[in-house]
Design brief:
homohexamer, D-amino Acid Aminotransferase, Chain A, domain 2, alpha+beta, 300 residues, 14 strands, D-amino Acid Aminotransferase, Chain A, domain 1, eight-stranded mixed beta sheet
Chain lengths: 300, 300, 300, 300, 300, 300
């Protein structure tokens, strides 16, 4: 890994020197929230929406990071520019902000919150091939947390259920990505992504009761409006996905990725669908960069 | 903090040098399990039960620590003996084992699991006074995870719901400890402890559907049997706690601690109850140490 | 109605002069708890258990009646003795205590709690015939309140769901009594009574999660123990009642009453069962009075 | 209290002479439905909508009041005009209709339904100050009844859960008003009021699955349409309220009241929000009366 | 019964010779899906929509019928034309396709799927009278399957819950049709039909979470659009049906049928409503046949 | 298949001539209940318990078979003896009784119930090898029906959820058997079998809330009592099975079969466990036949 420069607790330092204290509540108790963005050709994208969501997470869990949202935004842009000279070989960056409640055991912290802003390369290798072949999905037994226990609208690290879902998806179809249901059995979200289906020309996806309010999900809505494709947020069941014409994932790194198989069954004709491709084209235009081409170029 | 010696990834080192990598899945994704014990006069207590539970957690989440349970047990005893010379000022130790899935981003890890065994002083200061005055409890809106999302019988770090419950308890009664309900509205567990009530001479507590299978809880059952006090595991509701004769907490550090107030209402006559005191006396006898006296002596 | 003497807000007065203020929260907001007992040959029965339950209800809803439990007990006995001269024509009395939070609108009360202790004749006419013919039951669509909304272990007046269940039972089988299920679909309780079934010689009934902890229910348990009939508290479903050998109701007024038909289907052979009759005989012996005979004599 | 004139069971009489019979099922079993309106400058407001809702409640619980909806409407207007001479010192009236199933014990009634129509002063003192300072709210553990047990769309007196929620809110923040969730954990209603939040210029509130279909809620929808403010009815969670820009209550007496704090956390900037104020201004215009000014004038 | 000709496993044969093997999984394990259409004056109606739904059912349960959807469509039309000479005495046909997984015990099948396409007379006698008098409904205790156990969007034969619901409806009101709720207590569907209510001129019906996606339901939506009657799909409760202005059923055989009584209570004025009649008129026009007149003529 | 003789609707005939009418409600609507037993060396086993359960199923679904339980028992024994001459090549028989509600479409039947009693060979080939190697299990996403929709205590043919669960288990681990959870996420039953786990020497299994009350399950309880192995019926979660020392299936055909792998993870040491083997030995002794040896001999 390159010597990326990261902001950590008030200082800029090589990311390799950032270490989490083993008594930090963010580690011991998952007492941490975060957010992630990516750049397109080195330029940030909807950064303010991400930072606003981070501050909603902070407000919910009542951690005061000691920085305003504007300061966090500036630090995030600075993290990008400070690492710009390292971008060429990787194409683009993910930017990551995280804030823990600080050092402290089971009682409350003595130390101040730990705040980090750092960049990492976009992991093109994980999904570049899937733009053409499609990515498989598996509906897992492991469910999303119910909001009464922990609201999925907060972006936090308490993700053991995501880890279990990932293992479970691989049990069924190696390399497939997990698709969770909420506690009522409705389609909810994946592990760091939202998922969508298309029936009779309508994009359908979960309401935001038990999912993260994805920024990429919002971008899908905006592009669909622009493309005159209707979008519906509603309670959906596995039946709807099994019998859909088309399906896709959306997330910060890859924007939109076609889902071609679910639970070992082809979706539609088992090939990436036209709506996913339309969205990718429109998104590429919006950011002035061929999203798929870049991914394939840098996946190598 | 003293220079305790810890085992970390195959080496013994000062605990102050143990640092968690910011890309370790144990930090980024809560992909970690752990267990905690304490010593009584420097001797471990039911260590094998704790290590067995740790290995059940490991089995469930499918992390192979690269150590057998017996090796983990030996390392844990070694951690105690290596730090024995530092025990006098603090009275006794907590021993902590944790195992993460290793370094890796959203994909699966390239690195091996991180394994740590370390000791910390028992935090007598947090509860010593409560043996006499009683500790307050607050039933929170925040619920336990349902087993379908994340089984509370695993001991993991994905505890954002515990953090929220703690804040919430303090909103109602500063310093009070949270008491969670399961998704069906039954009494379940606290944030690192089980809780019990006594009605008409019977100890009653939650079944282990949505709680950690507490080792201290098991000890309470054993002592109650020895003292001829009946114990019932059943679905209980807040009514049962509000109208109980007596209530108490149980956990590794303090063994048993009387609960005297719940939701600002006195339990029974609002004083520590006789059953809690009987259990503390029997437990003290079992470990050959005056549990309450020691706590008060070292509470500082 | 006779000129029974009642205790009301510190005074003894004719019951006909007791009137509830239309601004009393007990009326406007159902802000009231109560309990009911009956006499056997003019003597109270398990009065202390009823008063203790009343005080648990008071504690739960946080109304202070301005009287100790002992004073309430004394007033209740006094209510019986003050009306003893009126008992002959009716056989025995129900005794009723109720306590409201006092006068006040949607804000909290300015006035003190209203406390009433009064007697009424046992309503033998409602059920005397059923000792021989059996009483019908109907499982209703209307459910018991879940404890998270309002715990059925409190004895209160917020009983609109009982009124609806009664109407519903009459839709199916005129004169039948409603049998409620809890929110999970398990048999729970009736509208002022518990119900039981007998399979292979075992008395089976609901756990007390979503029912009133009936004093008569407790007496059934005690008599069953004395008669060597096993009793199990568990989650039961309509299947268990439809296929039972026998079933019965238990409540303060009639003690035990056979249920012979449920949802228009005969239970067992459609006649009162032997266990119900054994319990009635044992109960009669315990209170020194032929319970069935008395009811039939005074039903007229 | 003034000598208001009330209609009670066919007669007009001083309200102070209206007394509820202690054997009335409306008192003993909560077997009663009601509705409440208010006047603006002595004129009724949406009275027909309220009376229609009362008749839906009556239809649901199958009580025949012996009066048509038109007759009830006339009686209600008559109650206002008969008390008009008493209005000046209090500003405006609440009008209250209630109908019980009549006298009867656990069996069904012998007597006819009791019908009352009466007026009371609007309780300006309870909330006048909150137009400027904002009213606090607390999300309670106590839940709304599920429709399967008792449909919240009926307006009845079985409100022990409201009483418990009110006590609970005061435990957290004295003087705060309770905000209930439904059994699934979604925002539902308060104790006699609906509540709303505003995010990005959109008014969002609960669907009417588990709430009263508020007449004031309907007025909020109408005014928002007139003001071109979008309104969405949907399943919302506490997250949505904690992170909202603004929130408010709506009810008959105060129309709209800003909510500025929830669970001790400021909503938005912690001050009454612009949408609430727009609605109050539009409502004032609609009824030809300065709602806030009147409340402050008469709050005493 | 006439000698209708049916397609069975590759051959055309008299329907009276079609017999199901007692080891066919379609019989032993309910391992079968099907669909049903009707003709209007001998012409098929929305046959392709029905066949598409059949193929969604087949896809979900993973049975390959060995025929394409187009071949199934052709066979279905052929079944109509082969029996056309028998249509006059009965007016019109129902067409029925079913596909089982084939012969096999508890293990998987050795034999090929069994495929049948057959016609039967429309059962006008069952409902013709109800166009004028209205059909009664009863809300049953028996619930729809939750999608997590068996998705009601599949059209299958595992209908024991429908049989129980039908018996139950007859217990309350002989001849009435059952109306099921989903597991959350919302109005869902009947036993082979959807149901709708009308309030203030709006047609309201269940979302398709826990119901069959009725083709007739779709036709109701289309006609309503054409008639400028708004339609809402939402979570509804019994309250909404009890207090509706009007209600109706929709299904393949009778298209639309007024519901005039629910749970023995009149809906609206207890007479067939104007919206149902408008829909019937528009439907008749769409298919060029007086639907009601034909039914009454052939009900014989 | 041999020419077994079967009882069908009052006659004895070759089973190959038994055919189900395609309009029989048992086929069209799953309106059928059944039971299954097996012989040991040609002798029936607990036949009366099975027939009693069949009659509980009949009572629940309100089908009158036109035969008493004693007559059904006699017919069942007669089916065995009439086919005894065909038993030698297959070892032993399964005996199957089923009763449908008779011919009839969506309305109720015109015809009488169809009653069948027939024998089939025990399918030793399906499981004989698994006595030594163990059978794999997979916990499915497909859930058991909730009793409110269709009580699993009835033995019926509405088993589409079983078919889906079987396909799903094969997706994960080809040849593995499905293990269902109930709607609350607790271990429930398989598709025609119960399952058990062993922890610390205690046999643990689901309560009978959402499972068939297995006759083999009852036999396991009886043998365990005889062998002094404690048995607990309780709510269990996947955690309990993943971390068990041992697990097994129980059903009529194979009695007890070890489960050695669940969700691709070994149970205990991944070999058949001692408790399963003890139970098989005791069962063999009880029926006077080496159960495992016979299965292996006839597995072919």
């Amino acid at each position: 890994m390159q010597e990326y420069i990261a902001y950590y607790n008030g200082e800029w330092m090589p990311f390799s020197e950032v270490r989490v204290h083993p008594m930090d509540r963010g580690f011991v108790l998952g007492d941490i929230v975060f957010d992630v963005e990516r750049t397109f050709d080195g330029k940030s994208f909807r950064m303010k929406q991400h930072v606003d969501r981070l501050y909603r997470s902070l407000k919910y869990v009542r951690i005061d990071p000691g920085l305003t949202a504007d300061e966090m935004l500036d630090l995030s842009e600075e993290a990008i520019s400070r690492n710009e000279h390292l971008r060429a070989p990787v194409g683009d960056f993910r930017v990551n902000q995280w804030v823990t409640r600080g050092i402290g055991g089971s009682g409350f912290p003595g130390g101040p919150p730990a705040v980090c802003v750092n960049v990492l390369p976009v992991d093109f290798a994980r999904y570049a091939k899937a733009y053409e072949d499609g990515q498989h999905g598996v509906i897992t037994k492991t469910r999303s947390y119910p909001p009464e226990a922990l609201d999925p609208k907060i972006k936090h690290h308490s993700r053991m259920n995501f880890n279990l879902a990932t293992l479970e998806a691989n049990d069924v179809d190696p390399g497939a990505w997990p698709l969770l249901l909420d506690m009522e059995g409705n389609l909810s979200e994946g592990v760091g992504y939202n998922y969508f289906l298309v029936t009779d020309g309508v994009i359908r996806t979960a309401t935001d009761t038990a999912i993260l309010q994805g920024v990429s999900r919002g971008m899908v809505f905006d592009l669909a409006r622009q493309l005159d494709i209707p979008v519906v947020e509603e309670d959906l069941q596995p039946y709807d996905l099994y019998t859909a014409d088309e399906a896709f994932f959306a997330s910060t790194s890859y924007c939109v990725l076609p889902m071609t198989v679910v639970d070992k069954r082809p979706i539609g004709d088992g090939k990436p669908g036209p709506v996913a491709n339309q969205l990718l084209a429109a998104w590429s235009e919006a950011v002035g960069l061929d999203i798929v081409g870049q991914a394939q170029r840098f996946a190598g």
